[in-house]
Sequence to fold (95 residues):
Amino acid sequence: MIYAIIQFNIKDEEVYKEYSQATGKIIMNYGAKPIAAAKTAEFILGSQTAKNKVIVAFPTKQHVEDWLNSAEYAPYIPLRDKALQDLSISILNEF
Fold:
């Protein structure tokens, strides 16, 4: 099991809603299991640019890459780019 830490800021709330509704089912096809999310993460030490955080468990890193590079997800990338800024995805391995 690995964990994808997805961080971003929302540029357009309406477009973000459309994007998240459209892509929510797609990510599940790749073994994703949402763990935690915060629209405005609370920082107790330091700071970061991205305020929105989502933690998603996947069976393997390959599942994350397959999702991001899938033909199902590709049509939504322009919508994602319109909705979000400061997007980053980090991979953490389970102990």
About this structure: Strands lie at 2-10, 33-38, 52-58, 84-93. The chain has a mean pLDDT of 94.
